[in-house]
Known about the structure:
This protein is mostly helical. The chain is built from 14 helices and two strands; from the N terminus they run αααααββααααααααα.
Amino acid sequence: xxxxxxxxxxxxxxxxxxxxxxxxxxxxxMLTALLIALFCGPAVxxxxxxxxIGQAVRDDGPQTHLSKTGTPTMGGVLVLLSIxxxxxxxxxxxxxxxxxxxFVTLGFGAVGWVDDWRKVVHRDPNGLASRWKYFWTSLxxxxxxxxxxxxxxxxxxxxxxxxFKSVAYPLGMTGxxxxxxxxxxxxxxxxxxxxxxxxxxxxxxxxxxxxxxxFAYVTGHVEFARYLxxxxxxxxGELAVxxxxxxxxxxxFLWFNAHPAQVFMGDVGALALGAALGTVAxxxxxxxxxxxxxxxxxxxxxxxxxxxxxxxxxxxxRIFRMAPLHHHFELGGWKETQVVxxxxxxxxxxxxxxxxxxxxx
Length: 361
């Protein structure tokens, strides 16, 4: 909205032409989302506290977590508020891709909200039944995948292999929809599993979103795309604004989520952010790169699958001390802050590897 107003005024005031540049609006989006999160954070935390929306902590996990019982959760609403408001301010609302990522992000957030609300407010330990949780997230992911597949060109449905300039596999409509569904839904639930320690999921999400902003800008720029060997996709550069809004909102939330956390994200935030990353990766055709950069999320999800599978097959035996993976290291003697910072460092390395595929092709 603000973007359109400023562009319209550029006819009268030439200096306003700068707001037509995606790079400037991306920076402004990050700063705006950061300020919204910082300004609204205390009010959101007070509201959650007043409503007694406090976290329940498992008594079979690390004993250090018992002190976190009652800490306000569902703080992901602060992140979603910051992202949505910022995107509406600085994004080009005539761009269909902006609306599809907002649809997926807020849709997954709504599912997470219902799950959190039932767990915390209604005191239902099961929350939203798993079958319904996966049904609704799957439905949203499928709608997005089908829409993107039906509205894209053949080049936009190819699976690009990183580090190889001319290696890409045509997926066809069916293959594209299946892959997109798996990436969106899988990333969403993987980020949700990672969100178990103060700041653990937040900073990696910020780093991956920042990297995807670069991929979006390159893919949506004719000259850069041609020079780096990427398929040019019209309008995708606008997603750099959305990704930077995620970065700003995430950093603002981290101010309150850093150890010892004043508020937790909850499913409402984790499901939404994971889905947002997966959707952007699908649109910019970097699913494999997302798999690399989001290696932490992948490891957390795989640890749960292995633990559950082996527990059933072996008749009660475990591979890890506790799953997801971060709890395994905690029970092995690492302090919470050590786990978080070390996992951040690993994510930074993986993101740099992912970014290297821009040139190493």
